[in-house]
Design a protein that fits this description.
Order of helices and strands: EEEEEEEEEEE
Distance between the termini: 40 Å
Strand content: over 45%
Number of helices: 0
Amino acid sequence: QVQLVESGGGLVQAGDSLRLSCAASGRTFSSYALGWFRQAPGKEREFVAGISWSGGSTSHADSGKGRFTISRDNAKNTVYLQMNSLKPEDTAVYYCAASASRVVIRSGYHYWGPGTQVTVSS
């Protein structure tokens, strides 16, 4: 069982940066693949980025490539999403998720955090 709590969201202007954090509880955190998703109003939740259990493999959606970077610190039980050059279309609730699959996946996550709001003004 893994419990996840996101933080770091907020209101920023276009072009700004934010770093989201997701703290996890559970002794087996380091064995889980982790991911970030987002859901904008009226839209389905979409994959943003994923990282393998070791951090050695990552995947980023086209919408964030070159701007977003996922990373993890297993010693701190935390996964991060660095977001640069933010755009108004990045406005959404951002969720972190965990999967026992260990490898990077884009769907099929088992555990979810409650989400953190990111709002980007133009």
